[in-house]
Amino acid sequence: MNWQPSRQGEITLQQQIETWITEHIERGDWVAGTKLPTQRQLAMQLGVNRSTVQQALEELKAAGILEAKVGSGIYVAHNSWHSLIKQTQPNWQTYIDTSLHKPNYHTIQLINEYEQRDDVIRLGTGELAPSLLPTTEIEASLKELSLEPKALGYSSPQGSNQLREAICEYVKKRGIHANPQNICIVSGALQALQLIAVGLLEQGSIVFQEQTSYLNSVHPFQSVGMQMMPINRDEQLAQTLVQKKRNRQAVFYAVPTLNNPTGGVWKELEKNQLYEACKQSRIPIIEDDVYHELLFEAATSPIKSMDDSGQVLYIGSVSKTLSPGLRIGWLIGPTTVIERLADIKMQTDYGSSAVSQEIVLHWLQTGKYEKHIKSLRKELLRRANFVEGILQESFTEIASWSPSKGGFYIWLKFDEPIVDKELFTKLLQRQILINPGYIYDPQDTQHIRLSYAYATDEELKIGLQIVHECVVEAIVKRHKE
Amino acid sequence: MNWQPSRQGEITLQQQIETWITEHIERGDWVAGTKLPTQRQLAMQLGVNRSTVQQALEELKAAGILEAKVGSGIYVAHNSWHSLIKQTQPNWQTYIDTSLHKPNYHTIQLINEYEQRDDVIRLGTGELAPSLLPTTEIEASLKELSLEPKALGYSSPQGSNQLREAICEYVKKRGIHANPQNICIVSGALQALQLIAVGLLEQGSIVFQEQTSYLNSVHPFQSVGMQMMPINRDEQLAQTLVQKKRNRQAVFYAVPTLNNPTGGVWKELEKNQLYEACKQSRIPIIEDDVYHELLFEAATSPIKSMDDSGQVLYIGSVSKTLSPGLRIGWLIGPTTVIERLADIKMQTDYGSSAVSQEIVLHWLQTGKYEKHIKSLRKELLRRANFVEGILQESFTEIASWSPSKGGFYIWLKFDEPIVDKELFTKLLQRQILINPGYIYDPQDTQHIRLSYAYATDEELKIGLQIVHECVVEAIVKRHKE
């Protein structure tokens, strides 16, 4: 939905909008029962005043094409006499509403949508700025690739053998000993979680995680009926796990290095404690390690390196380091498990892009990957310092934070509970996109995940200033109430 | 599992095999309760005599590492005293057995596995031979690509906008009028089906299809609890559909052009009849059109081109024409539906490979794609004629077939019902891989999907000769019984 009405020509904005909506309906594109975006959203999206949108909608309501439901919004009418509206069409909206997979949270849909716009400052994005991606180098490496005809065919279930061998070498430096048959190439870490969800867990299984978790912002487990369970990692962990799991199957999801969104880094001892507790209670661990290369200081060993019994499923990826557009990650675990998940991957998408796999192989084999990461870390550190400078200057009276240890984020905590959908929307109207804490912990009303990895210095400065204004406004409002 | 014991050196084959198995168990790679492949499978896979495998297994059983269950096979022992077997490990096998997603049929797992081997003649493969892929040209086009830094970031939910525009232009020639917002880029047609399964259908929905169907060989719908229902397309179709669907949701899956595996091509009238019947009963149509470019004669319009009410979800792909390794396809439908499916795709894998998308864009924009298809069609026609020549020469007394109209396959029908797992296995032992009819229709015992697209002329000749031998053997055996 990138269309915007033109301000040149004779047709009024309102008329253009009416035609635009009508055409959607006429084509069967917006089906009877489709809920339209709110007036506010439409106005933002079309770049016009809200009153213009309102008038256009009123016209179409009068024409019987749209209908309002009190307190709920505006819909494409179920209107048997209107020639525009196809009565023979499948009831798409019902299909969508009753289907299995949950929609993304509305806030996340908005984030996905607004991340596509160039006029928005992105303060929360979990992605490297285009300027930090080694685009020229990747382009150059395309010229060096020589493709085997066989590589362009359907992939083997676990992915390119050469790439799996290169990954074995690469993770050896992290203390992980794996063979190619312990590895399944995936289209990013999220797909690894998806495969685990449908390939290893029965309905109603429990996924243990920390209170504030990336998993709350995506649905790989929830969508297939698993129960997420936040848990404190204290001395009683093994007992607690057994108690809470009862007779159900369970798995522990952990991001021990540069947690998303909190930025936390576990000590060696903490990793060991989790490993032992899970071993004792025979609960597998999913170790999500996609940020470790971006730690500013030397990284400690992953849990997987302690694993002498095939207990840990380890996830790596190049999305946070080289390019998310390649869609390449890897899952390391016992052969029995990996073969099972590879079998499902074959049923899901017949493997990951061969060209993407070749590129990652080339970058790992030539050492370009590690060289790139080294310089990337420097730039991220510079950016972290820059943002912490701004925070130090203007935010100390309203918020607190820990200095970033690496990766993309500062988990900024406001002193008052003012981070809600209202703040999110208000900032969006001012063209600032944040990742509010509540998408990682529904109870959270104080944090935002502040990313220094995407916006430019200038944008970070302006963006944070606007955040400051809106937050102060919210605080004042709160105290008045 | 590509390891094979070495025939050089002093360690016997049997000892090497014992060590190989023991190491798998020691690493926690084969967990307690894992079922080993059959002796026959192991012997084939390891390239040794069955007796060697048998002796190795006996040794390990005696050592308490393996255990036999009568009538069921050999398993890694649940053996509390054996130091090799980790008692603290999660019960992976139970996790796998109780999880949500169905495994591939065993025959298909074997096909997936044996397709990776170079010493096997592939007579059924649904894939172009490496020599038919334009590898050199793709390699050359990599040098011409200029990447936008933004393109290497996370994709927009529906995929590259430029690629979607190019696809609009491309399908216009098929009589399909679509806008970029009607398109979602997917990682191949199978993913499109997966997205429809979880994003549009409720549990227990009905998927109508032809009796013999590609969908029986994969599980996108079955795995999430949909019911497949074969149906005859006769004059009563609309009534039958309504009757059989009762109050459940339903969708009709159709491959009107070059059906996989039967090679059938619908007449204009048949397409129209299906469209009208589904329109009348308000059942959406999934039109899988991934083979149409390979029709030897001019293709007629797809059902989607008749669609004036957003009834048809249309699937295209470059996997059968340019390269399956790119993993790029597209889904065309009403915006409401496409946005929903794109939202789920974001939750599944955050989009398809950016580089793959750029390559397909380049091939579409420069006209390379259509030029390549033209010459590809010629070569496929030559191969089809070559194989039909062989059939004409040797198979007329035991089988019948229709001349191929395009694509990859001849749906070869043997006069007697001898196509079973036994024939499949016997051919596999002689290093011939076939796609038996029963994976497309469980009732089928007479067909194989013969592909002329993969094996070389020489291989096709040898392979068909061996098929002939084995089939004649099976017929003789059958008549004796």
UniProtKB/TrEMBL annotation, chains A, B:
Pfam families with a match to the protein in the record: Aminotran_1_2, GntR
GO molecular function, one term: transaminase activity
Cofactor: pyridoxal 5'-phosphate
Spans through the membrane: none
Recorded superkingdom: Bacteria
Residue ranges occupied by any HTH gntR-type domain in the UniProt entry: 11-79
Similarity-based family: In the C-terminal section; belongs to the class-I pyridoxal-phosphate-dependent aminotransferase family.
UniProt name for this protein: PLP-dependent aminotransferase family protein
Lineage: Bacteria, Bacillati, Bacillota, Bacilli, Bacillales
